[in-house]
Amino acid sequence: MKISMNWLKEYLPVEHSVEEIANKVSLTGIESAPVKLGTDLSKLVVGHINSIKPHPDSDHLNLCQVDIGEAEDVQIVCGAPNVAADQYVIVALDGADLPAGKKIKKGEIRGQVSNGMICGLDELGVKESLVPTAYQKGIYVFPAAEKPGADAKELLGLNDEMVDLDITPNRADTLGMRGAAWEIGATYDKKPAFTDPKIDDSKVESVNDVTINIKADNLVTDYLARTVSGVKVAESPLWMQRRLWNQGIQPVNNIVDAANYVMIELGEPVQIYDLDKLTDKAVTVEMATDASKLVLDDKITKDLNHDDLVINSGNDTIGLAGVTQGQKAVVTNETKNILIESAVFDGTSVRKAAQRHDLRGDASNRFEKGVDNGAVEISLNRVVELINDITDVKSISQILVGKETPAKPTIIKASIEHVNRLMGITLSDQEMIKILDRLGFTTEENGDELTVTIPSRRWDMTIEADLIEEIMRIYGYENLKGTLPSGNETNGGYTPQREFINKLKNVLLSEGMDETITFGLVSKKEATDFNTIDSEYTRVLHPMTEDHEYLRTSLIPGLIKTIAYNKARKTTDIAIFEQGRIFDREEGNDRPKEVEYIAGALAGNLGADTWNTNAKAVDFYDIKAIIEELLGFLNVDATFEFLPSEKIQNLHPGQTAVITADEKTVGFVGKLHPEYQANSSVDDTYVFELNVDSLLALAKKNVKAQSAPKYPSINRDLAILVDKKIASGQIVKDIFNNGGEYLKDVNIFDVYQGSNIDVGHKSLGYHLIFQNPNDTLTDDTVEKAFTQIKDSLIDQFDVEVR
Amino acid sequence: MSLNDKLKELRESGIDDAKRAEHLKDLNDLRVKLLGKKGPITQALRGMKDVPKEERPEIGTLANNVKKDIQEAIEARIQEVNQRIIAQKLQEETLDVTLPAQGHKIGTKHILNQTIEDIEQFFIGLGYEVAPGYEVEEDHYNFERLNIPKDHPARDMQDTFYITNELLMRTQTSAQEGRDMDAHDFSKGPLKMISPGIVYRRDDDDATHSHQFHQLEGLVVDKNISMADLKGTLEALCRHVFGPDREIRFRPSFFPFTEPSVEVDVSCFNCGGEGCRICKYTGWIEVLGAGLTHPNVLEMSGIDHTKYSAFAFGLGPERFAMLKYGIDDIRDFYTNDIRFLEQFKGVN
Ligand SMILES: [Zn+2]
What we know:
By secondary structure, chain A is an alpha+beta fold. Chain A has 20 helices and 42 strands. In chain A, 26% of the residues lie in helices and 29% in strands. A 7-stranded mixed beta sheet of chain A has the order 28-31-32-38-37-36-35, sandwiched between helices. In chain A, helix 19 (728-738) crosses helix 20 (779-797). The mean pLDDT of chain A is 95. By secondary structure, chain B is of the alpha+beta class. Helix content of chain B is 41%, strand content 18%. Chain B has 12 helices and 9 strands. Chain B has helices at residues 3-20, 24-35, 40-45, 56-92, 111-125, 139-142, 175-183, 227-242, 295-300, 317-325, 332-335, 338-342; strands spanning 129-130, 136-138, 167-169, 191-200, 212-222, 248-255, 258-267, 284-293, 309-315. Chain B is rod-shaped. The mean pLDDT of chain B is 93. The chains are: A alpha+beta, B alpha+beta. At the A-B interface, helix 2, helix 7, helix 10, helix 12 and helix 13 of A face helix 5, strand 1, strand 4, strand 5 and helix 8 of B. The complex binds zinc ion.
């Protein structure tokens, strides 16, 4: 809400610059910014068009002789369709500045001298939607005579300075000029002064000609009304128009404008109906019947239901309570008699209705945040006063009471000691009482206890903490000296899970992989592509886009997307990983389990072609090496295996392994399936994914130091010919199973298939290392074990030992 | 020629030959040739029988000296030749050390995680525990326990991805507050925790909005926790992150789960408060929201708000990183352009 300095001055002496006020209010109350209108405008005056005649060389231009307050009239060429003689208009003189650096120059238009320009409001920077409808397609015409040559910028309010309050939901009390005046006044230790509206008693008739029924009692706190007869609908006076457009409200007519003006002034939305258009002389506030309708205009009709609180007259709905009124009883130029409604409706009900029907606006915004039910009657009377002042009405009804709830002040007790302790300050009782007085609160003191009475305009205040905030902010946060909590020492740190994650990430970083972060919400396809955990899908109810609709079941799709994104930008050598959660939901549960995973991907080359090195395309064993290093760092007592797998969707059936720890699956590694790869716009890509929580659950290794072996080891080389389908892993496992207690290590040094080897076979070569930590091994012992190994391999895998 | 003279001549010619030799092999050959059993000195000494007896010791001494002198000349020359060989080798092995090297690359930690870990380390040092939390959270913890009941207007401030009526993608890491307060045993001392993590909002992604982003929540519950404690803690944090000369200021604000609530500004690290583009010419930059935990929030965890008090704060790692490194598009964090990621190698 923008607080006009001109308007504020009616309530409060304002001595400081708008910048200073905005800064101070930001620090003590509400975030604010200074706004200065019309800084880009100059040389704008009132002109009176004395005569007008068509331009001789144009079918739409006119030559206007305009009195601009100087000795002689000046000629101005004007093309506006609504220009006419005897209008008071805005004239931009020779040399005038208009928004966006536009400059007006005296000149000739089709051979005729033009000494400036007659302007529309939009040409002065007023948003077109705020210009009164009659003047949107042409020049603005002052509603009454103004002095020719007078400063038009000032008359139009376009020299106003404002403090723009960015109001948080709890401070809706400042959504009116009076509330804002209280706030700014408290900041500067000044009390605002207001004049209450006066109703012309001579016009009040004691005839209650409209009945008001409140049927939805729980949603209506107050409902007051007056009828006014003999109004004359016309344009509002300039002073009212300019305040409205500066507030972002389009002037409509003096009746509608008066209601809007009071909403800005007092913060209370007021609604006005054409009394003669009511279906009968009664209004009822009740829940809408299903399938009833509210016609807003010729184009828009809202379908209502039993959740909508409406204002009905007879069988017609004339308004959606607190939100808008319908076309049925709208005030028009022909309106003679009106019904003015000042009410307080339930905020939640208004908010939901406004949302449901997409009709959020100034009124609903105020009701949903709360309004002062102590200002209902004043607001009603103020509208009546304004309309009577402007249109000199015939008669005014007494107040028609639909419902009235007395506005009660709030009483909050606070302990002086508690206030000081919670803030870490040392204010005296008198200092606190003085601050509360600045806010317009009255305080009684009893020992350490303050009893504070808070007027209904500050309905946000309910508990001691609210009071503490008021004291602290007015005292000033700049007076608060920082300290650190003085309580007992605590041991900070990460959870074991996080420590473990940090370790895993460090290994992958050391392996040259960059860390990425991708989205947890993915497309249906991405949720499906690598659902190796066989999770049920979890979907958000109202996704913004199909791209972010499902909770991820794997980190792999995000990595692939990253590779594709980079490939499109010519980065093709990629080593990346992500550590994050995937969402594993079991059927029958709403809530998925959140499981920590870590996944990586390699694509393109390792290294680069340079003057002394050659790039090497990444392959399966490059990514496997990374995983083996990672598993080596886990410090767990478990046997890991890479089991060939043809079954993982979207992975290459011949280059994929499931990774197990003690025979339980903990992840997988593999090359993307060529088809999937092509569809994903990436080149050869290798991926792995590991379940961090499963790895964390493995038993920790109990590391005990051992001295380096004192006795020499004995090596044997084993070369075998074996069926191609037999995996080396199976051979090694068998070697260990039969190698006896001194077999320490088995390293493969050769894999060969091709010429000299039977088709369907391969040749494998292993170094076997035997060692006895406590004694010198004999050849005899090793030979025995070696024989046993060979025999078993022949027996198990039909190998030929070469 | 006397034997004496002969020996002297041999000495001269031998030393001369040694000095002129260019290769180690020649020097070795010279040594064998001159000093060996068949060498000229040995040969010459066969003429000793013609020398009078009393002169023989003198000749013998001379012969030994001649041998020694030649030996020394050869050794000296060997050293010289060796020096020359090493010098030549060094020259041959000289490299262009300005040529680029190719070695093992180390990966770069994501800048958001570097930012988060920097903040975590700061708080761990102050005795805070780092609590994880759930990305899928109950409405109960994400809203109700934070003093945001159903139908509270504040729910409009955060558009939420619901999964069911009661389950949602958490919109704030503050959702962890209730869980941690419930779990904490206050007889063992104060609760001091931070909770970093991913949160979700129904926003369209653009340069300043992302439907997924990070938050880091902080919460301290103890007897006598004050607003001044909050200010001192955040002052220290801002100095750790943005530089030792930074000041902070509090401005009143509103969050349903704190009362009083404040926005926290840090003095501009770019201009030092003079005013510049980064601080929008105010000298201050808004960095986080904080406040004293609302009594209702404490009471919902069974904590007596008349005995205990608490402060809480929530900050955005994206915002911190954007400010600190001049990143102007939040989407850059999630598109993972390798060139973007790698520029932050080792910054924290
Ligand atoms: Zn700055």
